User: What shape does this take?
Amino acid sequence: MKLTPQEKATLDLFLPGTISKDGFLGDDSRHVHDIVQMDQRELTRLGIDQKDIADRMSHFIEAGKKGLETTVDLGDFTVQVQWQRGLILCPFGEKRRVPKLIAIVCNKKREQCIRYSQLNEHMIREHGFFEGSGSTFRLNPAELVQILEIQSSS
Assistant: This one.
């Protein structure tokens, strides 16, 4: 399928060196829409909505901001938010810029941690995009649900 010039320009934003050094697709050769569809099928299987995941991720980012660069103890979880100066553009062609924040959330009971960016939270909430296989910030929906102990809001 041939892409329109606008679709090609948007797709280029996902590649390394355009918005981010490593890009958003990793070694995944599939189209962005195919990646989103695969992850949406996984969310359906899990009975979880992408907004439920994004809300939980945002909860930890906001809690971690209170102790910026230090670990915040939240009972069963710890979170540390690291600020990478500046803003990063969303690759979906919108003009939205998101702070370069990285959250590291550890589930003490499971003895598991997960690392994600504030851009991850935005792309999951607004676009259902968890990034491509092998990308630096690829998030597995099932791991997010398990580690962050996400429950369906429906």
About this structure: The two ends are 37 Å apart (CA to CA). The chain has one domain: 5-147. The first strand starts at residue 71 and ends at 73. The chain is about 35% helix and 20% strand.
